Amino acid sequence: MKEIYFQNINEYINKEVTIEGFVDNIRDLQYVQFLIVRDSSGKLQVTIEKNEENKELNEIISNLTVESTVKIKGTILENEKVKLNGKELIPTEIIVTSKCLEELPLNYRDSKSALLGTRLNYRFLDLRNEKNLLMFKVQTCLINAMREFVLRKNFVEIHTPKFISVPSESGSNVFEVKYFDRKAYLAQSPQFYKQMAMASGFEKVFEVAPAFRAENSNSYRHATEFNSFDIEMSYVENLEELINFEEELLIYSLKKVKEEYGIKIKELFNVDVVIPTRPFPRIKLEELYEELEKKYDFKMNYEDVGDMNAESEKLASEYIKEKYGHEFVFITDFSANKRAFYHKRKNGIPIGADLIWKGCEITTLALREHRYEELCKQAYEKGLGEDVKFYLEFFKYGCPPHGGFAIGVERVTMLLLETGSLKETMFLFRGPSRLKP
Predict the structure, then answer these.
(1) Cβ neighbours of residue 82 under 8 Å, at least 6 residues apart?
(2) How many domains does the chain have?
(3) Peptide bond into 279 cis (omega under 30)
(4) The domain spanning residue 346 has which CATH number?
(5) Which one of 21, 70, 354, 376 has the fewest beta carbons within 10 angstroms of its own beta carbon?
């Protein structure tokens, strides 16, 4: 197993080591050969003098191609003349573990040298870009921090099924699949099952898992398959508790990212990781409509009244940034006909909020209706019957008050690094017109 990473090479000065990685560059000069080897943590220079003693090594380098993989044994030396961290490896053995046989179909070092579609076709090469590698390290750090935060709060991790027997939530926007001799569907979210965990007495649960949406949308922020960090917890009495919890979760997680990768993010993405202050601004939907009309002459189109759309989310962020100097805003008091049937209501208004960050919604959080009679009534209002019959069973035998939310992992990464597209922050993007590689 690979044990030495180039970011830790200082620990091996004047020691014999074995390194492995990709050939990043080759310089074959008159009296010396230079090999730059790359691993997931950085780069290292390998220096081979041209002489009779190194004849076999010289021949290997002369026939080597960039992007091949190598295993090299040698000694790490300090050399102030070496521009790459002042360290070099003097080899005694070079093994070519895999040879790059053809010229690459794109220059992965320069993302602007190829169209995004081409980059996605050759995603396994595109991901070799230093920015892409950093992006997934950041995403790993972010998820780990969120997981760490909830585990400290005594949450239980669950894994809900992705094959479901009936269309979830609304009965639309789901993928139908053949399941032996009957139909099944891919779950839009773990919503029903994490609520089942509340009825089971688990009290606090989370899940990090894929979700599926059969939405024929080609926007910068939608995908047919994405990963969601879901939260559900019992004995939540008001919306403010949920909001406070998410504020703390995001602040904790963004601090971890900034501590670990803030400098590198600034270097490669030119983005400052801003740690938000509490409380995040809050605003009611109707009040926001008024402010956006007054300031930007914006009027919500008829079909979206009572809700938000992409344009209003963008303007809301501009307004909040200007008024409060804050990147986040919670918007409350949406119309009941624009929210899911299981959202608890007070005076006919759903008890929930959308969290907007940098002009894009990242969370819908809400208290859930846990009273069986009220839930049946709200399901009936939405025209739901057999589709949610199994779900309603959860609430017949006692279920504590509860609430929760979900955070789209790739969408948050997109906004954090300001990549401009979800396609950039997914390991392999899935959309209406993309099912490969």
Answers:
(1) 45, 47, 88
(2) 2
(3) yes
(4) 3.30.930.10
(5) 376
Please answer whether residues 185 and 209 qualify as being in contact, where contact means their C-beta atoms are separated by less than 8 angstroms. Answer: no
* Residue 272 and residue 228 share a domain: yes
Give the pair of three-digit tokens for residue 196: 């089942």
- Identify the CA nearest to 250 among candidates 178, 375, 150: 150
Asked if 114 and 106 count as a contact pair (C-beta separation under 8 A), the reply is: yes
The answer to whether 121 and 171 are in contact (CB under 8 A) is no
DSSP sequence for 43-67: EEEEEEE-SSTTHHHHHHHHT--TT
Higher pLDDT, residue 340 or 168: 340
Q: What is the pLDDT of residues 19-74, one digit of tens each?
A: 999 999 999 999 999 999 999 999 999 999 999 999 999 999 999 999 999 999 99
Nearest one of 87, 95, 90, 79 to 20, comparing CA atoms: 95
Shared domain for 158 and 56, answered yes or no, is: no
Place 171 in a pLDDT band, splitting at 50, 70 and 90: very low
Q: Is the pLDDT of residue 168 over 70?
A: no
Residues 81, 142 within the same domain: no
As a whole number of angstroms, the distance between CA 379 and CA 75 comes to: 70
β-sheet bridge partners, residue 284:
332
Per-residue pLDDT, 169: 59
Q: How far apart are CA 405 and CA 52, in angstroms?
A: 67
Give the tokens for residue 331: 């918007």
pLDDT digits (tens, 9 = 90+) for 235-257: 999 999 999 999 999 999 999 99
Query: Lowest-confidence range among 106-115, 143-152, 245-254?
Result: 106-115
Tens-digit pLDDT profile for residues 64-99: 999 999 999 999 999 999 999 999 999 999 999 999
Three-class secondary structure of residue 76 per DSSP: strand
* 360, amino acid identity: C
Residue 193: beta bridge partners? none
Distance CA 190, CA 228 (A): 9
Rounded to whole angstroms, the Cα distance separating 173 from 160 reads 19
- Helix, strand, or coil here: 137? helix
Determine the Cα–Cα distance for residues 415 and 19; give it in Å rounded to an integer. Answer: 36
Q: In terms of Cα–Cα distance, which of 391, 404, 403, 393 is closest to 167?
A: 391
| SS3 category, 124 | helix
Per-residue confidence band for 396, with pLDDT thresholds at 50, 70 and 90: very high
Domain residues for the domain of 412 are 125-425
Q: Tokens 């025209």: give the residue.
A: 383
Q: Residue 436 pLDDT more than 50? A: yes
DSSP 8-state code for residue 289 = H
Residue 314 has pLDDT above 90, yes or no: yes
Domain annotation covers residue 93: yes
